[in-house]
Amino acid sequence: MSYFMGLDIGTTSTKTIITDGKGVLLGAGEAGYPLDVPQPSWAEQDPDLMFEAVLKSIQEAIQKSGIDARQLEAIGFSTAMHSVIPVDADGKPLMSSIIWADNRSVAQVQRLKDEKLSSSLYHTTGIPMHPMTPLPKLMWLRENRQDIFAKAVKYISIKEYILHKFFGRYIVDHSIASGTCLFNLNTLAWDADALEIAGIREDQLSEIVPTTHIMRGMKSEFADLLGLNPDVPFVVGAADGALANLGVGAVEPGVVAITIGTSGAVRTVVPKPLTDPKERTFCYALTENHWVIGGASNNGGLMLRWFRDEFSFPEVEEARRTGKDPYDIMIASAKEVAPGSDGLLFLPFLSGERAPYWNADARGSFFGIGLHHKRPQFIRAVLEGILFTVFGIGIALRDLAGPAKEIRASGGFARSPEWRQIMADMFGYPVHIPKSHESSSFGAVALAMHAVGALERLEDVNKLISITDRQEPNIEHAPTYLELYSLYDRVYHKLKDEFSVIAEFQRRGHK
């Protein structure tokens, strides 16, 4: 038997899966860690707690699979993007990891936009200018934590930190590097102009390697602890978003992957780097011949949880009495409301927004409230508002890569037939639900299989994936959603300046 492991370091937990050579899940492990918010708009995590979670999740997956871990043929590695960890000469963190959700560098981003540098950086690096990006985070460190900036020998991501712990080398793959705004898409090297803007040297960053690069010789202390062969091929892998596409089989032209969990993302694969004249989308590497274009939204299922916690007390109480899931009760009530929520729109920007607007100051709004609107309309408006955001990203992808022919959906929302139906109606395409495990960790397995020759072509991943559900669009609902999306987009642009004013007021209120 052939056995493969996929490891995915996410925002709230690390997940590990073990499959056989046909992609059948044999065991899974998961270990969580806290998200620290020391100040409003900041988001940090302890790299050492995350490393402990990596070890625990691997051990749990091995134990549940029942295999001899020394028989693993390869391990693939996925992580979230955009983290920054300054480390000293011994590889020890000088501070917590500043993660993708951190918005402390708003001023640096605005300065780059005012100085007309953001556009050229975008077309060179493929990353719209936003505080999530490591480049402005480095600028913030240089300007606000000179004590740390002066001591830092390297600036690395959580992936590089884990790899250094395991192998003693600073290595970063094309995919993670392509999320830094420091990586040139055309030369596949660190970009000199971006480094100068950040104020760092190339030797302060890791060696760049392809996503299929294989490392061997894991330190014996960790190989022994985990029961692994120290020479097992450890495939450096890619970023979680790129691997999520691979994990659901969306690697061919016209196949779009939509993931909605806490946040949301829409992505498709093209054969070469591609940027958007309107700067709405990112471009990340998967392999040299597979580039993932798309956009991520800050505001996915988190919006429904917020509404549940703050306004859905009757549904929560009913769930407590009956043992049902409160989300199921909420969505069932929304199902009785006509598409368009009787003229109620929700702009779901409670934590700013990334694609397609890339505006950290964006704020949430209900628009069009009338006396006839009750809680079910508000719930449906939240569901539709989340999907309007991903629909806007889909429009950008259509402009760049042509129309979609199929949607592959994953994430917590994909379990809801009602939510899937809204998506199918809005996009006008069938929505397919793959029977995959966690898409990023399964994508890490597939890339590892490809790297060691067990999967000849990346596109062959579809031989390992079965489709469990298919939602057909109701074309009668499409005109309603097109009309309301146009209004949704106009409302955003009319409020754009006012969002900045209220965001600044909110920041002052926390000082």
UniProtKB/TrEMBL annotation:
Identify the species of origin: Paenibacillus lutrae
What the record says about family reads: Belongs to the FGGY kinase family.
Give the record's keywords alphabetically.
Kinase, Transferase
InterPro entries in the record:
ATPase_NBD (IPR043129), Carb_kinase_FGGY (IPR000577), Carb_kinase_FGGY_CS (IPR018483), FGGY_C (IPR018485), FGGY_Carb_Kinase (IPR050406), FGGY_N (IPR018484)
Q: Which Pfam families match?
A: FGGY_C, FGGY_N
| TM segment ranges | none
The chain positions of domain Carbohydrate kinase FGGY C-terminal read 257-451
What is this protein called in UniProt? Answer: Gluconate kinase
What Gene Ontology molecular function terms does this protein carry? kinase activity; phosphotransferase activity, alcohol group as acceptor
Q: What lineage, starting at the top, does this entry show? A: Bacteria, Bacillati, Bacillota, Bacilli, Bacillales
Give start and end of each Carbohydrate kinase FGGY N-terminal domain: 3-247
Q: Which domain of life is it from?
A: Bacteria
